[in-house]
Inverse folding.
């Protein structure tokens, strides 16, 4: 443990001040909160002492601020700008330039979540001076209705309440130590005096002496300067102005996010101080913020009065040692429903529902304004419901915890009728005026469309119990005056059917040898030629002798099933792209099939390689194209060709591949069963899986055993097989070797020796292996055929073949317990034999 702690401390000491700074800045750039940064620093071994040391360097940089020209001035005393600068802001900028973090009214908006751990608490305190630009106090403040109205005003980055440093100095502004005073003299003499009021309240003027100005207003100080300097300058005018103002310290206490003492400009107001303190906390009041000066209450601030009425009377200009106190709220209510700004509101003890609605911006457009529902705590265990009508809203006072809900108007109409379907302008209309009857409603909709079904329309009418009833409407009779016009009631919905909609989507389908087969929209008077042209015309393979049309059976008057499913028509296509169909027209849902010409065939190629005169690809000239035809087309076999070893590779069709996979899986299942019986489960199952995968990965072709000698000798005979597209015939050179592989001592290739049997080749391969299955030896010939080899026959072995000795299935091994049982049984048997021998001797 001590070794681990030593290593940890060594890592911590390896982090320099610069590394700590870079780490913190990097995490802040990612948006990491201060709590997480502190945790990561602790994990890296950084201590509070290290941060305290780093803070001392920061304080040293801060102390240099007094020696820095905050105006940036290379100007002379006579020409330099008289614009004021914000010294607090300049301090922050200097700290940024030095790489330190700042804690100012513009940036420190994060609510502090102090950890319970004392070590982490100290880290939080020490890291407070580091750059926390990425720390935001409130994220997306108004995103939901759970926020309190007005509470975010002092946390808004775009609303800092920062005073205008270059506004005209107010006449009631009182001078104090730190204010920069500029006195101009003009007339008979011209001069300028500038100085800063000392802590004793005086400014020293060359040739005149000290002049006490502290505590005076600007107006009073101007009079004092005139009276004093008038003794030294005759026939002159005098003016006094303020350059850079002094800094003051104010205290912000109570329910704010960061209570404390703040240094700010003497032009700052109470709102500026609240902003610097991070805004009002979750339980702080916005309606009664008190400002104390000299131990007495100076003013009370109502933030709502400022937000809603623009009244900033309470936002007084602060003076040194002023105290701002934010107490807890007294009454917080929740307003929901159809108002313009639903959220929480802080109310004063005597404020009513009417005042609350004013704060929320009033009712929304679809609000039910006759009453508001108020839920209020009643006693210690229950709630009570209060219905406040429009006449009580001005007198019903609110209490803390009240929840108010404003309902919406019902989603129905008092004077609406509607027409749908086959009219020119379907929609909702006002019931009244010219629209009192069905005829008036249809005229307002600009009449019927051409596809309207006039014999019968339907109307949905709402009964008194809000259920619907169906009313039939004779539209045609109402329009031509043969039927009585029907009066309308509110909520009536008239539907005019469309003859097109009643038929459904009528289509035609074309398949076969056209460029764009598919489904097309039906149109009256469409012919077969029209549909073929819509489908892009005929393909090259289309048959001109046969075009089929299939039509569904449709007899609405039928009373029994005749068994007939469809009608079929066939037509030839004549010259000029005409079909002699005697006026035949397509009907909805007809299916047209353009057949492929039976004489059409695309080129199908086969390939021959090896010992032929002209290797390459050849197109089959007929459907019974054979091996002999391909060899003849290739110029015959060369003198080096070994026709007996010729092999044919055939491309596997999808059906053949599926069949092969099924066969291999069946073989795998059989192998599993044998393995389970023999007890070699794990090894042999894995071996079977590998074998199956190997076979399945052999590719898309498979060998076909051929006898090219016989095929060439008897063209068209049973050995002269018919070729298929993609076939590849390979005619190799003669090979005078035989390969021996499998379960032999030394797999080898050796010269073929005519007349020798299997024993000869096995012997030269070192003999059979321990697990050789001697009765299952087979040969793979050059033409791809496979045959089992007799042990004594020499005819089974040919030049270029491969002799394969398979491996026996491994039997079940005896376990240790089985061996011990046999040994015990053998010992018992020996004892019995000895006893019998003794009896015989006796």
């Amino acid at each position: 443990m001590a070794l681990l702690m030593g290593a940890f401390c060594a890592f911590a000491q390896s982090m320099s001040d610069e590394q700590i700074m870079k780490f913190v800045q990097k995490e802040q750039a990612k948006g990491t909160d201060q709590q997480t940064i502190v945790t990561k620093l602790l994990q890296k071994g950084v201590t509070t002492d290290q941060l305290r040391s780093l803070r001392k360097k920061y304080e040293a940089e801060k102390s240099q601020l007094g020696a820095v020209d905050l105006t940036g001035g290379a100007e002379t005393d006579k020409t330099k700008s008289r614009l004021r600068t914000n010294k607090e802001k300049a301090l922050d900028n200097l700290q940024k330039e030095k790489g330190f973090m700042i804690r100012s009214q513009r940036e420190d908006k994060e609510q502090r979540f102090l950890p319970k751990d004392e070590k982490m608490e100290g880290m939080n305190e020490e890291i407070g001076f580091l750059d926390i630009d990425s720390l935001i106090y409130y994220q997306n403040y108004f995103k939901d209705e759970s926020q309190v109205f007005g509470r975010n005003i002092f946390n808004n980055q775009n609303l800092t309440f920062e005073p205008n440093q270059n506004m005209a100095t107010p006449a009631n502004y009182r001078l104090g130590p730190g204010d920069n005073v500029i006195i101009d003299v003009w007339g008979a003499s011209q001069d300028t005096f500038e100085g800063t009021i000392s802590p004793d309240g005086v400014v020293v003027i060359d040739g005149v002496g000290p002049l006490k100005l502290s505590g005076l207003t600007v107006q009073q100080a101007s009079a004092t300067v005139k009276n004093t300097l008038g003794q030294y300058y005759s026939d002159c005018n005098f003016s006094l102005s303020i350059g850079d103002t002094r800094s003051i310290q104010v205290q912000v206490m109570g329910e704010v996010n960061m209570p404390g003492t703040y240094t700010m400009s003497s032009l700052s107001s109470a709102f500026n101080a609240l902003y610097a303190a991070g805004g009002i906390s979750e339980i702080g009041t916005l309606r009664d913020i008190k400002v104390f000066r000299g131990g007495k209450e100076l003013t009370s601030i109502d933030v709502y009065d400022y937000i809603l009425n623009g009244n900033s009377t309470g936002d007084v200009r602060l003076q040194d040692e002023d105290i701002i106190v934010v107490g807890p709220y007294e009454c917080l209510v929740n307003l929901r429903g159809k108002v313009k700004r639903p959220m929480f509101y802080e109310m004063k003890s005597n404020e009513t529902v009417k005042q609350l609605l004013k704060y929320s911006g009033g009712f929304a457009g679809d609000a039910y304004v006759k009453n508001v529902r108020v839920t209020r705590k009643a006693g210690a265990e229950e709630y009570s419901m209060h219905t406040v009508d429009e006449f009580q809203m001005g007198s019903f006072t609110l209490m803390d915890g009240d929840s108010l809900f404003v309902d919406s108007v019902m989603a129905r109409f008092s004077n609406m009728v509607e027409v749908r379907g086959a009219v020119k302008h379907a929609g909702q209309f006002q019931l009244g005026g010219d629209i009192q009857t069905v005829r008036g409603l249809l005229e307002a909709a600009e009449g019927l469309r051409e596809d309207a079904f006039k014999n019968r329309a339907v109307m949905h009418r709402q009964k008194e119990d809000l259920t619907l009833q169906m009313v039939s409407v004779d539209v045609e009779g109402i329009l031509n005056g043969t039927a009585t016009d029907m009066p309308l009631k509110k909520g009536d919905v008239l539907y005019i059917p469309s003859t097109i909609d009643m038929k459904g989507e009528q289509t035609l389908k074309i398949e076969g040898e056209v460029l764009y087969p598919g489904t097309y929209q039906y149109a009256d008077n469409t012919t077969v030629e029209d549909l073929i042209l819509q489908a892009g015309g005929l393909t090259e393979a289309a048959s001109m002798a046969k075009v089929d049309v299939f039509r569904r059976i449709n007899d609405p008057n039928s009373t029994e099933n005749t068994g007939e499913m469809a009608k079929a028509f066939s037509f030839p296509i004549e010259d000029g792209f005409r079909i002699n169909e005697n006026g035949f027209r397509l009907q909805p849902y007809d299916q047209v099939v353009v057949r492929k010409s039976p004489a059409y065939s695309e080129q199908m190629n086969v390939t021959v390689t090896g010992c032929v005169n002209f290797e390459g690809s050849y197109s089959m000239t007929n459907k019974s194209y054979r091996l002999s035809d391909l060899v003849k087309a290739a110029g015959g076999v060369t003198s080096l060709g070994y026709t007996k070893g010729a092999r044919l590779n055939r491309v596997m069709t999808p059906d053949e591949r599926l069949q092969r996979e099924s066969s291999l899986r069946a073989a795998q299942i059989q192998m599993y069963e044998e393995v389970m019986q023999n007890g070699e489960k794990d090894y042999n199952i894995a071996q079977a899986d590998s074998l199956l995968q190997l076979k399945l990965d052999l590719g898309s072709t498979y060998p076909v055993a051929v006898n090219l000698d016989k095929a060439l000798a008897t063209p068209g005979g049973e050995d002269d097989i018919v070729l298929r597209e993609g076939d590849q015939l390979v005619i190799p050179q003669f090979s005078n070797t035989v390969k021996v592989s499998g379960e032999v001592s030394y797999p080898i290739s050796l010269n073929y020796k005519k007349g020798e049997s299997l024993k000869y080749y096995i012997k030269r391969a070192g003999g059979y292996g321990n697990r050789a299955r001697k009765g299952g030896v087979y040969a793979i010939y050059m033409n791809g055929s496979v045959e089992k080899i007799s042990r004594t026959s020499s005819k089974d072995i040919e030049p270029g073949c491969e002799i394969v000795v398979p491996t026996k299935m491994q039997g079940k091994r005896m376990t240790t317990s089985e061996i011990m049982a046999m040994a015990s049984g053998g010992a018992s048997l020996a004892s019995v034999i000895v006893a019998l021998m003794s009896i015989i001797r006796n």
About this structure: The longest helix spans residues 816-841. The mean pLDDT is 81.
